[in-house]
Amino acid sequence: MASSYQPIVPATPAFRPDGTLYSPQFDDVYASAAGTLAETRHVFLQGNGLPGRWGKRGRFTIVETGFGTGLNFLATWQAWREAAPGHARLHFVSVEKHPFARTDLKNIHARFPELGAMSADVLALYPLLLPGFHRLHLEQGRVALSLLFGEAEAMLNQLDAGADAFYLDGFAPARNPQVWSEAVFAELARLAAPGATVATYSVAGAVRQGLAKAGFAMEKRGGFAAKREMLAGRFAGETATVEPRTDKRAVVIGAGLAGSACAQRLVERGWAVEIIERHAAAAQGASGNPAGLVRPIFSLDWNTHSRFTSAAFLYALRHHAALVNAGGTLIQGTGGVLQLARDDSHFGKLQRIVGQFVLPPELVQVMEAQQATELAGAPVAGPGCWFPEAAWVNPESICRANLDAASAGTRCLFQSDAAELRRTGREWEILDDAGGVLASAPVVILADAYLAGKFSQAAGLVLRPVRGQVSLLPERDGMNLRIAVCREGYVTPARDGVHCLGASFNEGMLEEGARVEDHAANLWRLERMLPGFGAGVAPESLDGRVAFRAMSVDRLPVLGELPAEAGLFACLALGSRGMTWAALAAEIVASRIDGDSMPVERDLLAALDVGRFINSQSRNQKSTTNAKTQRTQRTQRESKKEFE
Predict the structure, then answer these.
(1) For residues 619 and 69, what is the distance between their CA atoms, to the nearest angstrom?
(2) pTM score > 0.90 for this model?
(3) Over the stretch 394-417, which tens digit does the pLDDT of each residue have?
(4) DSSP-derived secondary structure for 78-143
């Protein structure tokens, strides 16, 4: 699945003589000169019956058209802090075609010192200006801010959420009609939860009529300051009622990257989680490798792999930072990751990708061979790209940090092998080999890689194990490496006296022991990256580790609720990108379980959904086989275009 990529053009701040923030592009002000925060409280908070409604729901979701300065969010968060009950959660979703750069936003917020601490929290997580969805977690997870960068209609069309209130705060309809179109109003109606309200400063006839046509019952109310009137209303059309889960207990099978992340994302939402793991500790499968890379990929056609991996990379950076802030310890490198081009043609493609998508230097920089050598600290084989925020990380440390962050709401059952799933009433029972019940809960998440296929309910997933062997190269005098480097394989700086080289990719091979030929292949990959770095090393002298990754037919994750198996979810097939994918994959699964707004676009959700492999009643085996064949062919085409 390819998607058009429209680079984000940031807003340019300007101020009128009276100090009012102004948009030269739209020839309009961002807020009333009579008081920005006072206007927000009058129009949007009071206009939507807030804060009075916050105590009636466990989670309250607001959808805004026009993030602008972010002051509507900050004012709402401030009011929520002061008035919401302790169990409440706030999710603020905001669309913006022209977001401010972080520096400009910081300067704007400096004019509102009363919001300083909250502004600092947002700015610390504020994403790079790339199109698509960006989710930020604040207030120890009780507040979420989802920023949707792009055209309002397109972004809202891709949003899967149930909104309790709408803030319509785009520039004036005459200046920016796209935000006030009937198509946008139709999307708001689709997103409306039962009892949803709407408020806006505009009383334009086209706005009032368009909202009414979409199903909103609108009325005029007293406006703010010199503006005599504003509009407020309630959605009067039909809505899909989804009852929230009241029994918040779940069982996660598997304590690797996927399972530990799922547990952490659920516990932060107030769930109680039991983790069943067949080994004596967490991260003993592929998640137990010494190191792996967390980095994005890109393609010239911005295909599904690129979109998800790039979004997952940015989310993973925020997730890992949150784990550290919560007291976790991640074993990871600094200085970024250097990706070397395979040849001149590939280097040309990398340059075109960076230029075509106007990728910011904070994300990626093109490096000539000499620059790359200086950066790496060792002679490299050629030019490439440097990802300043990418890193090598020890995956076991991520798993431990996830479990530590979730410790208040988790119970781990190690050396417990889940052999069978059985539905009993509204709960799932997890049985051991002897038929004994290990645990039970209304929700179960399969996060045990290819082993999930042993359960009859997941037999249609067609997950295949892929053997991967890493080699451990002893550190040698004069052979220094500052940052991780990758090409066909990867090598990390030395940790505890050894470099990690990886990794083989053996499909259809189940041999658990390390093979000399795979050590030789890893050394060959090393020579292709760092000529001479492994000179004189005999493959048979190396230690290593073998693990089995799970991959799907189309090499994308398998996420979501299994069709016809209510309460049974999958977080599987993270393959060789588990380090990058796991956090966002877990957030997708946890959001679906908890009834939250989804963190990625609807078309991405469809591409990742477990239902693409398991037959529903409306699909027969033939159509599924044809679809898998088409996806495999598409994946083969896309893989040739990847930024790797």
Answers:
(1) 47
(2) yes
(3) 999 999 999 999 999 999 999 999
(4) HHHHHHS-TT-EEEEEEEESSPPPHHHHHHHHTT-GGGHHHHHHHHHHPPPS-SEEEEEEEGGGTE
